[in-house]
Amino acid sequence: MPSFMVHVVIENKPGISDPEGDTILKDLVLKASFLSVKKIRTAKMLKFKIIEKNKSIAKKKIHNLCDELRIYNPMVSKITIEVFDD
Amino acid sequence: MSLAKQESAYLEKKIGRKPTSTEFQIVAAEWSEHCSYKSSKKHLKMLPMSGPNVISEKGYDSGVLDVGDGYVVTVHIESHNHPSAVEPFGGAATGVGGVIRDILSTGTRPIAILDGLRFGDIEKDSHARWLFKNAVSGIADYGNCLGIPTIGGEVEFDKCYSDYALVDVAAIGFGKKDRLIKNHANKGDLVVLLGGPTGRDGIGGSQFASDSLESENRSAVQIPDPFIEKLIIEAILEARDEKCINAMKDLGGGGLSCAVSETADSLGIGIELDVNNIHTREFGMRPDEIMISESQERMLIITNNKKLKKLKTICKKFRIQCSVIGTVKADNLMHVKKGSKTLASLPTHLVANAPLLDRPHMVPKYLKQLPLNHPTPKNQNFTNIILKMISSPNIANKNWVYGQYDYEVGIRTVIKPGRNASVLRLDNGKYLAVKIDGNPKQCYIDPRQGAIGCFEEACRNVVCTGATPIGMVDHLQFGNPEDHEIFWTFLESLKGITDFAKDFAIPCVGGKVSFYNETPKGPIKPTPLIGVLGIIEKQPLRPALINSGDFLVIIGETKNEMGGSEYLEYIHGFIGGNCPKVDFKKSKKNMNIVLEIIKKNLAKSVHDCSKGGLAIAISELCMNNRIGCKISLDKVPSKKLKNDELLFSESHSRYLIVVERKNLNKIKKLLSEKNLDHDIIGNFGGTKILFEKNLVNIANLNVEKLRLNWMNSLEEIVVHG
Fold first, then answer.
1. In this prediction, does ipTM exceed 0.85?
2. Which domain holds residue B252?
């Protein structure tokens, strides 16, 4: 069976504040005069290596795993999953 | 967001027209149970709220106690149950933030945090473990980042909190009496919003807290930012010193709607504000959203034209935003505009005072169905039972929890968490002892006696450090108040607390009522929580190491009061029995004698006897000091009790005193003179805890083995399931 890399990005839902991103923007980027930068959002990424039949099964497995194990809190965060050939 | 039919009708009748959408949102937020106390306000008046040390001022969000030499201590308690149940980390952290700002709003510096945490059965329920783990991290993260020590609290697990969490936070402040903010405002003064920007987070939070938690599909999540909070604290305290603040209020439940209407109402003024002036995080927020947003880390300040420049300089120094959002009027109206367009114009008195309810109440049916007689199996192996209880989540050492908190930052913490009450050093040479206590198991089988018991337990803990109780805060947590039976349990608890407070002359200086604590499986058990503050004029009793040859003296009678005990519920799964009752007269006598013993320096340490009964209290003394003890149960003051009752009954008003041989006769004389229930029940020494009755050994425990279980079992459960 083929092997895949699955990237899971966990970030706060839009509209929910992100103090870390705000701080990087205000206290680092804008202070250093990169004034064209308007917004920074932080996120966490998990990279899974998984052996499955195909991409869609790999994606589904990882999604279920994240839900079941409370890898993220669906109340606050959303996840985006991308699958790559390993 | 909603109003009940009769509330809408009342509102329309009072203003003589249909409310605008903004008005409707403002009123719905302010008239929610969470903000208006509409079910409880009528009854809360029974609590004694004044006393020689109590300083009250209009618009204060926290209780203020005079501790002499020109200093005051402030205290407040709040919960963040609903938000913590869906997002434990952020919910618990923002709970800490909210109560800290209440302390700040009187003009005092927050110096300590205590938290009471309650979750489902973590031994069996992985969701409860997840909630517990993350709530503790949230509190630790927020408190540690702020540099405010989390000095104590309590943790309890019970099935009734399954899929739910009770996160109660109490905070203590300290400051100079002459620096307290004397809330006042004059026509033409400016209304300033200071702190983080207003965003869409937490929209409808107070309304959310007033609904039962039936589904997770809510957007009332608040994201903590402790670093902004720290800047706000420093900026506010500097602004206070520069006399830039006429009046101040923190933005909590109900957001701006609540802060503006309550401030205006308490000061007898009107406030006109323009939503265009409020700094927002997102573009395109509707005015209604701005008015009810519960974004954290914001303060409302009333200042005047002359001081505005100074205030702005201070804010700039600390890099926090502040915007002038409105002005003070003399018309007693809350006037919300967007540019020149009026969105809301309501009498502040109407907004801030929801029509109060007189909810019906009824004795719960379940009380009559509870069995009175507990099982007493023959030939029980008490050694194994004590070992099992010591390792149970409710009794196990909570170092896994408080080990994550910085409890020493600020170098005031003299007696650290893990003992009876925690003790803080104050600048005038005195010491402050604080403890919070709750007991849902006892409150379930007898809401009145249970609540009194929590109160006495908190007092006992404070007394064990040598402190005299000077004030209390209560946090009353119940299910849906529309349920007549639940409302009865609320009233009973409140009456019990009132009786005790009046009899002991301990004023209630603050508190909170939290209703609608319900899970899909039903209401929580009645969970009143009592926080007691005590003052020590000279030195606290710092527990000294127990040596071989020291004696164990007990004060107080052990009775057949097994109801709601850890032993019956954890070992036998039995709910019912006799709830422990406090005999006010004896309780007072025992407290006084313990204080006298401490004052005369006759005790090495004093420990209160509560959860788990005598067996657990003695074991704790032995484990903390890594020493054995031989206890003769025949000596324990009691009337014809069985062995399990002697060991595990949770009767109140009992204290364990560790005495050196040289002081033994003095203590004996003192106790005999006062005619109190007491006796010498044990001798310390060796490596074993031996309980004997009629010279027969009934339990034999190795202290080191017991200690390992006690210290490590909670972490084992949390980390390894």
1. no
2. 1-30+181-354
